[in-house]
Amino acid sequence: MKDTATESMIQAVSDRLESFGFVVHKVVGVNQTILGAIGDKRSVEPSEFEVMEGVHEVLRITVPYKLASRTFHPENTVIEVKCASFGGEQVSVIAGPCSVESEEQMYTIAREVKKNGGRGLRGGAFKPRTSPYAFQGMGEEGLRIMQTIGEELGMPVVSEIMEINQLDLMLRYVDILQVGARNMQNFSLLRELGTIRKPVLLKRGLAATIEELLMAAEYIMSGGNYQVIVCERGIRTFETYTRNTMDISAIPVTQKLSHLPIIADPSHGTGRRAKVAPMARAAVAAGANGLIIEVHHDPDRALSDGAQSLYPHQFQRLMEELRMIAWAIGKHI
Amino acid sequence: MKDTATESMIQAVSDRLESFGFVVHKVVGVNQTILGAIGDKRSVEPSEFEVMEGVHEVLRITVPYKLASRTFHPENTVIEVKCASFGGEQVSVIAGPCSVESEEQMYTIAREVKKNGGRGLRGGAFKPRTSPYAFQGMGEEGLRIMQTIGEELGMPVVSEIMEINQLDLMLRYVDILQVGARNMQNFSLLRELGTIRKPVLLKRGLAATIEELLMAAEYIMSGGNYQVIVCERGIRTFETYTRNTMDISAIPVTQKLSHLPIIADPSHGTGRRAKVAPMARAAVAAGANGLIIEVHHDPDRALSDGAQSLYPHQFQRLMEELRMIAWAIGKHI
Amino acid sequence: MKDTATESMIQAVSDRLESFGFVVHKVVGVNQTILGAIGDKRSVEPSEFEVMEGVHEVLRITVPYKLASRTFHPENTVIEVKCASFGGEQVSVIAGPCSVESEEQMYTIAREVKKNGGRGLRGGAFKPRTSPYAFQGMGEEGLRIMQTIGEELGMPVVSEIMEINQLDLMLRYVDILQVGARNMQNFSLLRELGTIRKPVLLKRGLAATIEELLMAAEYIMSGGNYQVIVCERGIRTFETYTRNTMDISAIPVTQKLSHLPIIADPSHGTGRRAKVAPMARAAVAAGANGLIIEVHHDPDRALSDGAQSLYPHQFQRLMEELRMIAWAIGKHI
Amino acid sequence: MKDTATESMIQAVSDRLESFGFVVHKVVGVNQTILGAIGDKRSVEPSEFEVMEGVHEVLRITVPYKLASRTFHPENTVIEVKCASFGGEQVSVIAGPCSVESEEQMYTIAREVKKNGGRGLRGGAFKPRTSPYAFQGMGEEGLRIMQTIGEELGMPVVSEIMEINQLDLMLRYVDILQVGARNMQNFSLLRELGTIRKPVLLKRGLAATIEELLMAAEYIMSGGNYQVIVCERGIRTFETYTRNTMDISAIPVTQKLSHLPIIADPSHGTGRRAKVAPMARAAVAAGANGLIIEVHHDPDRALSDGAQSLYPHQFQRLMEELRMIAWAIGKHI
User: Fold this and answer.
1) Is B308's CB within 8 Å of A47's CB?
2) Contact yes or no for C269/C240 (Cβ under 8 A)
3) Using N-to-C axis directions, what is the helix angle for B250-257 and C273-285, rounded to 10°?
4) Structural domain includes residue D83
5) Using CA atoms, how far apart are residues B174 and B68, in angstroms rounded to an integer?
6) Which end of chain A is less congested by CB atoms within 10 angstroms, N or C?
7) Does B39 touch chain A (CB under 8 A)?
């Protein structure tokens, strides 16, 4: 409460807190009175009390998410899909082109990924492009190609879902459904993904705090789907040399706050090929449970994101380095 | 090109540019060679050339949007809906509660808005809440209430559409469809809104640049719907005292780059009631074409956003101040 | 405390708080125990307790500054220097060139400023340039020119001090000493400015929170100099169209938290001439106690910051608009 | 130039460019004309041309620094001080307490650092504290203690210089002079450090771009002191869980743009002890040339920054992990 708050203002706030089901403790200081509200009421927003007369500030002590919180689920959640495993001692690397462009392209790249120890295939069939005039993806045909190749190589397939109407289609072809950074707070989509029983790869929004990322995971989990892998892929800051600034510290922070696995996307996180390997190594060194990386056998001619795709020989070398780094902290690739 | 680029690298880039339909000019400097590519190829992304050997940097001289650009449409677009007008000399103020809660609540507030010179009614029926456990809105019943009151008072009604599946419903009840900040880059939704013939109020995303805001408008316009009103509602910065930082300078910048009207939302832009009036005045003083403001007759008991809603008497006083400020720069409320 | 904290951990934190002179209140909740520490110990940093075993989070309820806080000094501080007044009903506009370049240049511009109602003269003699190769200012000769003209026109003179060693010199010539954004946390300089008895114009750092700005003011005030005018001049955000993003909401926020006057610098805040007038109007509409603006009679040939300097005729028109806006909120220019 | 620029406007800009010594090339496009100015004129600021009539935008192709640029100095600069080496294959770890508190404290910690492979000692004697009421450091006595211990253990000593007046004192006791983040653009101080012949450890400012960091290095180098080690220590972003966001990608980016060594400070970069080791590992994995880390044998009782200081046993384990990570990328600790 403000130092100018009267007894009756303090009483009014106290009464209102009790009407919400909280047990209220009053602490009287030299200049100010503090009201401590005890109770498990995640649906009450602090701002609803900040407007009351005499209130100085409302601080939330407990986190606003529950299912995603490590407090209520101390052990790591381990998500296993085919040969990939996220959350345990394995660091699973998913790789592939930005967009599926043809069966041959996908096959060429997938074999390189497999050969070098990759454990998942990525590829976009529907692309969220900033410009309405850019290539928008192959659609269902792209999904079909990925599924065929994924099954042949025994690797799970990851692709992005852009809207609710694509859900049935995606479920038919894809092993892990990716939610892009721009859709991290598309709550209608999140709610729908709570009803399915396949893992969701949830990317952090460009301006999302770690708490908001975990709240978005909570949206999915509150529908009954607990298989959520979150992904750090760079946040927007004032630094413009890299497209985004990868918040590597989000990896250990998320692992402290939540039991969910977290992976990193150094391709979108940097937007520049030459920075992908250093940031991939940094993410694994910081404890990431996996990576998702763009690889292309002919990036100069890629239909999207060529500038940030690794050549196969770069991917090979990176995987060798990652193996040693993982080993340095008690994990393996 | 880099200072280390060889003749053949320069030739390769030049050839590739020409294959995309550009006319190429070569400027040879002391240390570096610069290739100027002339042509109207908005679909080509600079990054597609940045990956080529010997390339130092690719800079785009022209903006990546066209329909939204003032270059190709020098006069202001003026959007008129009932008594409201955006883009001309009138500064139209839209006001109302965050959420429609009941017919009585909406009616009480709407009359206050009308009486004080407001020219549009706002109210949420479907609420995008950060927490899955918070109040999610009245749905269709809320829309029906707004429509009835809007028609009685002769005021256009603004409400937020959260997903494509709500489109038919929204079109039946609402005069201006709002796209929330979190959906600014929900490209599926934007594309759909390009097919309708009602004005769209497009809010700037928390981490969106002005260029990205105008690209989102371009998405809608490329479908044939040119009635787009953009809205500054605060961006995310390191300052945490206010919920967001209103980027008032975005108002004159957008008006320079685009012919579309731009309004401001000081309620979401600040998140604090006491800051709404100063920021509303600032926006109008900076040249905003309108405002969208939350007003509630009993904000302590509002089901959402009470902390940032003005009391009716505060709204009244603000409108008086705005009248004089608008007049100071040759406009009227 | 964490939900896993043992009784002995809680006791250890409680004991340590008491050893610092706090009175401790213990609130026992369902999952967690909260310790409330009451006392006026501004020198204790929360982080010193965050490291203790079992501690979940340390939240400071009171602000870390005291002399700058409105809590302990409810009335506005009004700072008067010659014809200028900051903090009362007058909105004082300081204007002039970025750098003093010659007596003739300064004189030409100063007369324009005076004629149009400006109440202070600005001009740089020592310039903090990002590049070591750029023009660094006229030095003492520039100060002498400003003083002569300021005295003739009866206007106070504002110039930037860059280091402690310039203090004697500045005191001889200047009425208000400006601390630039880059020096806002140059604590050695701040401490020295606490010992003088002339007003200090303290600019907000590019990445400084409002709390840090007020802490910097506190540094000066803790030395006994209470005449501090703070200045919003733009913060660094991801938006790059404008050089900085002016945080107009910092004006009402600072006025709520502190009794010190706050002015705005729309020239550095935007870095673009065409945006100076809209942002100057916005700042006054939001309640700023003054402005500091760059004006130049021949900006194309200015030795620094020409791109953001107003022409005299633009300054004249702006002052006319500002007069009406100030009047709309009960102030005058 | 703008599409509306007339021939005479284009000629005026072209003439002015030539008057600055540039060779001008004119490229005429469909809608716009582009003027390419060739010449090595780092002191000319683009904004000086942006104000001219008809100018659309001025883009700088070359970087504004020269001595710090890799273009003009392709090999790494290797800085060697006693047993430490920055810029070559060794990754040198500097460690020690935030502040020197006593001879015994410093000695205890220094031996731990030495034993575990540290190659430099850090310790503050003059502390830049945000609050004027916090512990300000031991001053000269602290420097003397560090020097004695550094000489005994054969390790170079690093301490922060806060103002020009401390320069003689620092030179007497310290091997590497640190410039703190808040002073990164204290140009007076930088210029003075250009005249000495000891290495300078220059920390990146909280809101400084990589280009600005290298410009600050250029300030020092332009005075003749080429021994500059730059340091990434976190930037300010919207994420508040960690005190700052470490921009790990700044490490490879700086190494690409400049020949200067870059080290990382995970202690200030995160502000939280539990995040120091993951971020230290990430920095080395990304290619950092060294680290500077806070270690304290009794952090609960440290007079400053205890919350981010590692315990000796944590430091020991970290050094073991770092050894393997360095080896994975062809380096050693």
Assistant:
1) yes
2) no
3) 140
4) yes
5) 24
6) C
7) no
User: What single-letter amino acid sits at C152?
Assistant: E
Q: What is the DSSP string of D248-267?
A: TTHHHHHHHHBSS-EEE-HH
Quick: pLDDT tens for D59-96.
776 677 889 999 888 999 999 999 999 999 999 999 99
C62 located within any domain: no
CA–CA dist C151, C55 (Å, integer): 60
pLDDT band, very low/low/confident/very high, at A7 (cuts 50, 70, 90): confident
Nearest CA in chain D to C64: D131
Whole-prediction pTM: 0.88
Clarify whether residues C275 and C245 are in a common domain: yes
Q: Are B86 and B189 found together in one domain?
A: yes
CA separation for the pair D186, D168 (Å, rounded) = 18
Distance CA A319, CA B162 (A): 42
Rounded to whole angstroms, how far apart are CA atoms B135 and B143? 16
Q: pLDDT tens-digit profile of A257-286?
A: 999 999 999 999 888 899 999 999 999 999
Q: Is the dihedral of CA B285, B286, B289, B293 positive or negative?
A: negative
* Residue D136 three-state SS: coil
Q: Are residues C318 and C283 in the same domain?
A: yes
Are C185 and D43 an interchain contact pair (Cβ–Cβ within 8 Å)?
Answer: no
pLDDT (tens digit, 9 = 90+) per residue, B116-138?
Answer: 999 999 999 987 766 677 677 88
Collapse the DSSP code of B179 into the 3-class scheme (helix H, G, I; strand E, B; otherwise coil) and give the result: strand
User: Inter-chain contact B328–C238, Cβ cutoff 8 Å?
Assistant: no
Residues C300 and D52 sit within 8 Å (Cβ to Cβ): yes
Contact A130/B222, CB-based, under 8 Å?
no
Q: Tell me the pLDDT band of D326, cut-offs 50, 70 and 90.
A: very high
Per DSSP, B164 falls in state G
> Distance from D3 to chain B by nearest Cα, in Å?
8
Find the residue in B nearest to D61 (Cα): B57
Which of B249, B258, B331 to mutate: most C Cβ within 10 Å? B249
Please report the residues numbered 262 through 291 in chain D whose beta carbons come closer than 8 angstroms to any beta carbon of chain A: 269-270, 274-275, 278-279, 281-287
A59 contact D CB<8A: no
- Contact between A211 and A46 under an 8 Å Cβ cutoff? The reply is no
Strands A33-38 and A23-28: antiparallel
Pick the closest to residue C91 from C308, C275, C310, C286 (CA basis). Answer: C286
C194: in domain: yes
Going from the C-alpha of A219 to that of each of A184, A324, B38, C101, the distances in angstroms are 10, 37, 48, 61
Q: What is the CATH number of the domain that holds B171?
A: 3.20.20.70
Cβ separation of C45 and D131 shorter than 8 Å?
A: yes
Within 8 A by CB and 6+ apart from A71, the residues are: A63, C3, C31
Give residue A225's pLDDT band: very low, low, confident or very high (50, 70, 90). Answer: very high
Q: For residue B80, which phi and psi values (nearest 5 degrees)?
A: -115, 130
ipTM entry:
0.89
D174, D147 in Cβ contact below 8 A? yes
Report the neighbours of B using a cutoff of 3 or more CB pairs below 8 angstroms: A, C, D
CA distance A29 to chain C (A): 5
Give how many domains chain C has, as a whole number: 2
